[in-house]
Structures are given as C-alpha cells and as structure tokens.
Specification:
Structural class: alpha+beta
Protein name: Metal transporter
Keywords: Signal
Oligomer: single chain
GO molecular function, one term: metal ion binding
CATH class: Alpha Beta
Number of strands: 3
Radius of gyration: 22 Å
Strand content: 15-25%
Helix content: 40-55%
Organism: Flavobacterium salmonis
Length: about 110
C-alpha cells in the first residue's frame, strides 16, 4: 500500500513540475522611428498595436524610440516595422513609401534621409 501511495505521489509531483515550465515567447524590442509630435505618437502606437501579438507600445517623442513587447509566436519585428512604415513613418529597418509619407499632416513631416 505504501508503495502505491509513493508511486502516485511521485507521478503527481512530476506532472506538477512539468506543467509549471512555461516558455516566455515575449520579446522586448526597441527601434528608432522618425516623427515629430503627439499626433505622430498616437499614429505610431496605433500602427504598432495593429500588429498581432503586440502587448505594449510606447513611442518617446524626444528620443524617437519605439519600445514594444511582442509575442514572437504571433508576429515578427519585420511585421511591426512594416506596419509603422505603412502609416508614413520611417524606421531604422524599413523606410515608408513616398506616398505614405506625403499623407502625413504638415506638422508630422520630418526630415528624411
């Protein structure tokens, strides 16, 4: 009887330990995004949140740094950069098309390289 209880206990503990191992698929990613104002901030963050798997997005006006927490199982950093470029803002990795840039409000137009 003691042997059965011991086997049951070891089996239960083995399954419990295995169930608690959780792999973290979230990535904290920071990239430079060109923009000027509060309107740019809203547009850039909205574009970031449109990407599946983005949990947080914050663009700092003064440093031009976009910081996101992204679930790598749902999308990639390339998807994020493409979404931001699609709304007219150049990133370090992807440049917005001239048409998308031209659609920006006058105060949002930044000096392009």
């Amino acid at each position: 009887m003691n042997r059965i209880i011991l086997i049951a206990l070891v089996t239960f503990l083995g399954f419990s330990a295995q169930a608690q191992t959780k792999k973290n698929k979230n990535l904290k990613y920071t990239t430079e995004v060109n923009g000027n104002c509060e309107q740019c901030k809203k547009r850039i963050e909205k574009a970031a949140f449109s990407v599946p798997g983005v949990k947080t997005a914050n663009w700092d006006i003064s440093s031009h740094q976009l910081t996101v927490i992204l679930n790598e199982e749902k999308s990639s950093t390339a998807d994020l950069n493409n979404a931001v470029a699609k709304v007219g803002h150049d990133t370090k990795e992807v440049k917005a098309t001239q048409k998308d840039y031209d659609n920006l409000h006058t105060c949002c137009k930044y000096e392009r390289e």
